[in-house]
Specification:
The chain is of the alpha+beta class. About 25% of the residues lie in helices and about 25% in strands. The protein has helices at about 10, 165-170, 220-225, 270-285, 290-295, 350-365, 405-415, 420-435, 450-460, 470-495, 510-525, 565-575, 600, 640-655, 670-675, and strands at about 5-10, 20-25, 35-40, 55, 65-75, 75-85, 95-100, 110-120, 125-130, 140-150, 150-160, 305-310, 325-330, 335-340, 370-375, 395-400, 495-500, 525-530, 540-545, 550-555, 585-590, 595-600, 620-630. It has a seven-stranded antiparallel sheet with strand order 17-18-19-20-23-21-22. A six-stranded antiparallel sheet has the order 1-11-10-7-3-4. It has a five-stranded antiparallel sheet with strand order 5-6-2-8-9, with no helix packed on it. The relative contact order is 0.07.
Length: about 675
């Protein structure tokens, strides 16, 4: 976007009801920083009260419409993110201003690459606006969200304030008292407190204006030469994440096991596992607002106070029904209610149970039924078929959540993005430990289905024919597996990892899977591509059922400038720590393939990657690793599912992470063992 331009959010995305705005900058010294602030304005362009001013000491709106999510380190600097639930913004709020300010005399001209980005509820980046003329201002309005004809728009502003945050806030009606600087002597809270000081009132909006002189100074004070009070130490609330390494254990020996909040040793059967898993999850959702909101926002739940219940008895004909759980969210005196049906291990959802809960929800005016199991739902292929009574005016949504998605959201919060306090981080850590324990039954997709062995045998003896329903079942299981692999890798990296579907928009998912099933029958291969945020290409994974081998590969486009020999040398140098058996292939224009070889052979002679015909145009390079795949349909160590997951993890950790543009893994394998 350019300065002054605007765009309609619904025109960019169907998921623009909730958005995340990111403010970024780069400091060459590594010490430059700024504080984000948000102001909600009425039709007159003023805040309705000082509580409409959100900053680090007032980071979350009571109605959930605004949430300052904290800073996220980037490759070159920081990005400060703010979450907006636009559906929860009060009707009398006409405009939302997103700004940032510097302190202690610092100016925005000292920072580089000032920019604002906006992503939708699904995490898709929708726009970017760069500010190139910041100059010597100490506060900047990056952009604003505003209503027009019942839809939200975004405007790229880039307006600076020489008077800093005080001038900006005053312009929009925030009270700035003359004695605001008296509060600068306020003591630090928590671990930041350095020395005892006199008590002061709780921090308000004007106290955010640290190191800002009062608008006018009494003449007698100035003549007396009174010193300006020292700048108040910053009291910004930091997001809490897991430490990179655990503290040294006080256990006498390794056989001692740490006491857990959610023990798994007493779980004896599937009924116990389902009851325990439901209670553990719902209790953490209610106690950690960030986490509960993450899981329910996609299901249409409003932002508000959440309470959760288990084993609730509800009337249904002659026999009352007891759903595994109930979620209730209150906002503005109205209740949003969802019934929860849970399954663990390989247990499938029962259509009659889900149908009964859908009927109960419709009669009682509830909004949704949420199913939770190790299975992964696919677009256009519901896990449970239910009948909807079209005569009922009240519609109930049927939603599915996999245990892998629950674990992913917990990982993102406690390992990468952070939560509000240490207690919340500890609760999520205990939840994640429970979900990942072998006895919990919450291990995600773990069975390729009954068709796996017959299809594999049919490919071996060339008896599998196109149109075989078993091939379609295997393709669906493969798609579920790939989606789970994306969640697992994304949770470890803190990056978005999504499967790529190479089909035209609007193509029926069933037709696409049918074509893939026919392709499986003819060539015996399952293929998928993963897009990893921050990497220069797609990670491809191919399972060849005829040879029993897995291939993971990555294609790198050739640079726009330079010489081919320089490209080859630089690539080999970047792969210095990659496995010696990595295959490197040169991609050339108009031919099936160019020179290739293993990294071990190419390291002393990178020039072997160049075509003999110097006129041949190099379009890129393909990197590949091969390994044997598991045969079993289940989730055992030697099974197919584990082998695919392991192949993708190994390829990223040993190859992709060394490429230009790839984001560094934030948690190493060793650290995962310690903290997970």
């Amino acid at each position: 976007m350019i300065k002054g331009s605007n765009v309609s959010l619904p025109a960019l995305s169907e998921n623009a009801g909730s958005v995340v705005v990111g403010l970024g900058w780069v400091s060459q010294s590594g010490e430059g920083d700024a504080d984000v602030s948000v102001l909600l304005l009425d039709a007159n362009g003023k805040v309705r009260s000082d509580t409409d001013f959100y900053f680090y000491n007032n980071p979350v709106a009571a109605d959930g419409s605004v949430q300052l999510l904290g800073k996220t380190p980037t490759e070159d600097g920081n990005e400060d993110r703010i979450g907006f639930d636009l559906t929860a913004v009060p009707d009398d709020v006409d405009r939302i201003v997103v700004a940032a300010s510097r302190y202690e005399g610092a100016r925005f001209g000292e920072l580089e690459d000032l920019n604002v980005t906006l992503a939708d509820a699904a995490g898709e980046h929708l726009l970017r606006f760069s500010i190139d003329d910041a100059g010597s201002v100490s506060a900047i309005i990056f952009g604003e969200l505003y209503r027009r004809a019942d839809e939200w728009k975004f405007r790229a502003v880039g307006q600076g304030y020489d008077s800093g945050l005080a001038g900006l806030a005053s312009d929009f009606g925030v009270d700035i008292d003359d004695d605001a600087t008296d509060a600068q002597t306020q003591a630090l809270s928590g671990d930041e407190q350095a020395a005892p000081v006199a008590p002061v009132p709780q921090p308000g909006p004007q106290e955010a204006l640290e190191a800002i002189p009062a608008p006018r100074q009494p003449e007698d004070d100035a003549e007396a030469g009174l010193k300006k009070p020292p700048a108040r130490p910053r009291t910004a609330k930091k997001k809490v994440t897991l430490p990179k390494a655990a503290r040294k254990s006080l256990a006498e020996n390794e056989s001692w096991r740490q006491a857990r909040l959610f023990p798994v040793s007493v779980l004896k059967n599937d009924h116990d596992r389902e009851m325990r898993a439901t209670s553990v999850l719902l209790s953490v959702m209610a106690q950690v607002p960030e986490f509960g909101r993450r899981l329910t926002a996609a299901f249409g739940a409003p932002a508000g106070r959440m309470e959760t219940f288990t084993e609730v008895s509800l009337p249904h004909g002659d026999t009352p029904r007891r759903p595994d759980g109930v979620i209730r969210v209150e906002r503005a005196g109205k209740l949003w209610t969802a019934l929860v049906e849970t399954k663990t291990n390989g247990n499938a959802l029962k259509p009659d149970q889900v149908q009964a809960y859908m009927d109960i929800a419709a009669r009682r005016g509830y909004e949704a039924v949420i199913t939770l199991s190790n299975d992964v739902a696919l677009e256009g292929s519901p896990l449970v078929e239910v009948k909807i009574d079209g005569r009922r005016k009240h519609k109930v949504a049927l939603r599915h959540l996999s245990w892998a998605e629950v674990a992913y959201q917990a990982q993102m919060l406690i390992r990468h993005e952070g939560v509000g306090n240490a207690a919340h981080a500890w609760l999520l850590h205990e939840l994640l430990h429970y979900l990942q324990h072998e006895n919990s039954g919450c291990h995600g997709f773990q069975n390729m289905g009954a068709a796996w062995v017959p299809v594999r045998n049919g490919i071996d003896d060339e008896t599998l024919c196109q149109g075989d329903a078993r091939a379609l079942e295997v393709v669906q299981s493969w798609e579920r597996l790939i989606r789970q692999v994306c969640l697992g890798l994304g949770g470890e990296l803190g990056q978005k990892v999504l499967p790529v579907q190479r089909t035209k928009r609007g193509t029926d998912p069933g037709e696409r899977r049918a074509r893939l099933a026919d392709s499986l029958c003819t060539d015996g291969r399952l293929h998928a591509e993963l897009r990893i945020e921050g990497t220069p290409g797609l990670l491809a994974v191919t399972a060849d059922l005829r040879t029993g081998r897995l291939r993971t590969s990555f294609e790198i486009p050739a640079p726009d400038q330079g010489y081919p020999l320089t490209w080859a040398k630089r690539l080999i140098r970047r792969l210095d720590e990659a496995p010696a058996d990595l295959h490197v292939e040169t991609l050339v224009e108009g031919e099936a393939g160019g020179p290739r070889g293993t990294l071990e052979r190419l390291r002393p002679e990178p020039a072997d990657l160049l075509p003999k015909d110097t006129a041949t145009r190099i379009t890129g390079f393909r990197l590949s690793l091969f390994k044997g795949m598991g045969n079993g349909r289940g989730n055992a160590e030697t099974g197919f599912i584990r082998s695919v997951d392991g192949a993708v993890q190994r390829f990223y950790e040993s190859v992709v992470i060394h490429l230009d543009g790839a984001a560094s893994r934030r948690t190493s394998a060793k650290e995962r063992t310690v903290t997970g």
